[in-house]
């Protein structure tokens, strides 16, 4: 249990730093190439683990295709959108906006699962979280940039969060029905993510995005960042997170959602001198409060207080 909590905090720091690394990396690497490099390294490492442990891809074609699709929706597309958004959006802001993922997951689950209906408390949490988004994006309107590059980047980050929400429910439904080995799932999904990001790397330039660049042309800092994002922030962090889920359970493991934005904001301010103003603090607080309500973590506390209030008070001198 102690090791699991250590992993929890290590993973939180690693994933919180991803936004800082991407913000620096996209200065030289196009967004899709950044995403491809990251998932490509992780896919190679995951598949090596499969070979060493004598695991195999699913023999059922439908399961294999679904896992590849999951990798595209839950990893490849959001990684590309996050990197594209960070071309204009600060790393701390990206970390905060990406934290809205559980809200999208709850909304989608309401329509996907009969046992996941939205309650009044969840509706309140959703409203508060989206209020936080409005506060954050109002920074652009207040600065006079309007619906410009910053806002389009923020929309891309929110769409990435929506992809995560879709992927969360998709994986839950699929794993409930098939339950393949988690390492196999990781290897196949990372391979699927590599396929879609490779396609996007050459397709997006046809729509006006930057063309892929030679890795030999990168500065040593950006090249090292790309390697770290792939090996540490994706491959190693995913393996550690699986251990956290196994030892602490999915509910406790999901608490990284609350830690990552704090770390991303702190690192952005520390290393990139990103602004932390009143709108950032209020918007972040609203999103985190909304997540507490959406996840229902306030309910156990209220139930304990009600239970304590109903208990008879001990007589003086007992």
What is the structure about, briefly put?
The chain has 318 residues and is mainly alpha-helical. The protein is built from 13 helices and no strands. It starts with a helix and ends in an 8-residue tail after the last helix.
Explain this structure to me?
The protein has 318 residues and is mostly helical. It has one domain. Helices cover 78% and strands 0% of the residues. The chain is built from 13 helices and no strands. The chain has helices at residues 2-25, 31-52, 61-85, 91-98, 101-112, 120-143, 149-178, 182-203, 220-248, 250-253, 256-272, 278-294, 298-310.
How would you summarize the topology of this molecule?
Blueprint: H1 2-25, H2 31-52, H3 61-85, H4 91-98, H5 101-112, H6 120-143, H7 149-178, H8 182-203, H9 220-248, H10 250-253, H11 256-272, H12 278-294, H13 298-310
- Beta content comes to under 5%
Shape assignment: globular
Distance between the first and last residues' Cα? 37 Å
Q: Main beta sheet: strand number and arrangement?
A: none
How many H/I helices? Answer: 13
